[in-house]
Amino acid sequence: MIWISPNLSEGRFFKKDEALLSIGIRQSQSRLKAPFNGVVQLKNVDLGQYVNPGTQLATLLGSDHAEVVIDMPMSRLDWLPKQSPNELPLNSSEQSAGAAWSKHQYQIPALVSLSGISLASAWPAMVKRHLLELTPRGMMVQLIAEVKDPFRLIIPEEENKKEYSGNAAIQIKELGTLKAEIPEKTVYSNIPLFLGAFVDVKIPGRKLVNVIKIPAQALRDQDSIWIAAEKLDQDSAPGELELQVRRVQIAHLDQDNVYLSGGIKPGERIITSPIKGAANGLKIRIAGEKTDSGKQFESENNRKLKRPEGERKRPEGASHDSRQKSAERAAEEHKETQ
Q1: Out of 1, 23, 192, 248, which could bridge 151 as a Cys pair, Cβ 3.0 to 4.6 Å?
Q2: Residue 248: which pLDDT band, with cuts at 50, 70 and 90?
Q3: Which of the residue ranges 30-39, 76-85, 199-208 has the most confident prediction, judged by mean pLDDT?
Q4: In the chain, where does the domain assigned CATH 2.40.50.100 lie?
């Protein structure tokens, strides 16, 4: 005789120690209880069915937390915040192990959201560890992040709904990020974290110090930039500029910006626009800006147009008086002739 609980249905949730089914006449002795809170993924038994020892009756999934596998390039592994055993929780097995603590363990807050859905349906997560095997495709490192209550079974109180998913975002902001795009508060959503879904994960990295940010389009040949520098040749006019190709040290780069740790000084002018035939020493001019040579030429021309020092400026009305006197003399000469 088989007794099956109504909760033993695919997609139904159950709580720990809840009776799911029983087999045999004495149900109290053959009752199967749920070992954890979870959901029924697959049911392989039905009423009236004979079962043998070892038969798989159902597939159960825990609902307290889920693990998200994050593929990350191996070059970015060093950008994760460094942690010592003292920074791990007191009840963690890594800290209690002392010398056996593994550097492959983390406690890094993160934010997980379904791809294509706004951050309003985000889950606070914690990056716990990374696997020691790279992915066959892309040779990526696999980080494991733990998400609590992935199926939204714990309904927060009304006054706490607005801050339900915001704790991880606040912690991320405190650790420091290059791009502060994670909101401090997110709105509660009842959308579950579907199994097998693609997700977006935001993980804070180490803080960058003593770096200079430049636009991504200013980077040339992956490790160089163009500098508009003043020519230092003796034959060059003051203020004349030339293009210099400079190799730089890249600390970090993203889609929009490049962060340089060496190869450039504050105040130097970087060329961001494309130039045909760009080469070291190419004479250039910044559009809309006058060079010192142009200013000098202009000042010399203005100096040539100035009046001699000995020539005085005529007072107002001088030309009118001279014409009047010339007319009077002409009239007197005309009378004398008559």
Answers
A1: 192
A2: very high
A3: 199-208
A4: 2-61
Percent of the chain past pLDDT 70, that is, above it, reads: 59
**Rg, Å, the chain Cα set:** 40
Q: What is the CATH number of domain 2-61?
A: 2.40.50.100
Kind plus residue range of the DSSP H or E element containing 145 = strand 141-148
| DSSP element (H, E) containing 296 | helix 292-304
Q: Summarize pLDDT for 65-118 with one digit per residue, the tens.
A: 999 999 999 888 888 886 644 455 555 554 444 444 455 688 899 999 888 776
Tell which CATH architecture fits domain 65-89+101-202: Beta Barrel (2.40)
Q: Which residues of the chain does CATH 2.40.420.20 include? A: 212-286
Q: To which H or E segment does residue 183 belong?
A: none
Residue 295, φ and ψ in degrees, nearest 5: -65, -40
List, for residues 275-314, the tens digit of each pLDDT value: 988 999 898 888 877 655 544 434 343 444 344 455 455 5
Range 212-286: architecture per CATH: Beta Barrel (2.40)
Q: Which of 254, 245, 250, 271 is nearest to 262 (CA)?
A: 250
Could you tell me what percentage of the chain is helix, strand and coil, using 3-state DSSP and rounding each to the nearest 5? 20, 30, 50
CA-based torsion, 148, 154, 157, 161: positive or negative: positive
User: Which regions of the chain carry the CATH code 2.40.30?
Assistant: 65-89+101-202
How far does CA 21 lie from the centroid of its chain?
Answer: 50
In which element (H, E) is residue 55 found? none
* Residue 329 parent element (H or E): helix 318-337
Higher pLDDT, 28 or 147: 147
Q: Which two tokens stand for residue 234?
A: 């003796």
How does pLDDT run across 2-31, given as a tens digit for each residue?
555 666 666 677 677 777 666 655 555 556
H-helix segments, 19-129: 93-96
Backbone angles phi, psi at 325, to 5 degrees: -65, -40
